[in-house]
Design a protein that fits this description.
Helix content is 29%, strand content 20%. The chain contains 5 helices and 10 strands, in the order βαββαβββαβαββαβ. The chain has helices at residues 12-23, 53-62, 84-94, 127-142, 189-201, and strands at 3-7, 27-32, 43-47, 65-68, 73-74, 77-78, 97-101, 149-153, 171-173, 208-213. Helix 1 crosses helix 5 (189-201) and helix 2 packs parallel to helix 3 (84-94). The longest helix has 16 residues, at 127-142. It is globular. This is NAD(P)-dependent oxidoreductase. Residues 8-156 form the NAD(P)-binding domain.
């Protein structure tokens, strides 16, 4: 059993990851700004923010894994990127692993091809968030840290607006967007969480990004 702190535990991805971790018998410290996570067996709700360095260090010392399931941007400006150094320092001092819920925008549409965010079809409304998360991935890769981190990009279609169902069957990839035979790139919240927590239970992508889709 692991102790897993989930920042953004009441969000779409964070909620699914919390549920999956509990199903496997892990203990979850569920963090959100209001502390409104449901108090249930295995869950300790905490009110706070990943931007609170003191709280971050306190929870890193208690946790095996810090799950970052928060927005990359706020009001069109990077939010998570400036926090990467303090996140890495807290994880290093506390001996915790870091798992980041990333974005699909930084995935390449084909081997050697452009990133999804750089294609003409990518919606302008999502560019600030996608760009912010891409910068977080770059910062982790360039950090030269000994901290054990991983970053999971979902398929292009991923969110509460297209929740899908648990199937237990999906594919893992690297830096290239995964699509099905019809060119669709999709993953449900439950199956994304399965892949995410699989990486906690059986680490296979240390210091790297992977993606999950059908």
């Amino acid at each position: 059993m692991a102790v897993i702190t989930v920042f953004g535990a009441t969000g779409y991805a964070g909620g699914h990851i919390t549920a999956e971790a509990l199903e496997r018998g892990h203990e979850v410290i569920a963090v959100n700004r209001s502390g409104s996570a449901e108090a249930r067996p295995g869950v300790t709700p905490v009110a706070g923010s990943i931007a609170d360095e003191g709280l971050l260090r306190e929870l890193a010392a208690k946790s095996d894994v810090l799950v970052v399931a928060v927005h990359g941007s706020a009001d069109g400006e990077p939010f998570l990127l400036p926090l990467v150094p303090s996140l890495l320092a807290a994880a290093a001092d506390g001996g915790a692993r870091i798992g980041v819920v990333g974005g699909a925008g930084s995935l390449h549409v084909a081997e050697g091809g452009p990133r999804l965010i750089d294609t003409p079809e990518f919606p302008d409304a999502y560019k600030a968030e996608a760009s912010a998360h891409a910068q977080v991935l770059d910062a982790l890769r360039d950090s030269g840290t000994d901290v054990d981190w991983y970053y999971v990009s979902p398929a292009a279609e991923f969110g509460a607006w297209a929740a899908g169902e648990r199937t237990g069957s999906f594919r893992l990839g690297g830096d290239v967007l995964l699509t099905d035979a019809e060119g669709k790139s999709f993953i449900s919240g439950a199956d994304y969480a399965t892949a995410f927590v699989d990486e906690i239970d059986k680490p296979a992508h240390r210091g790297s990004r992977f993606t999950v889709a059908y």
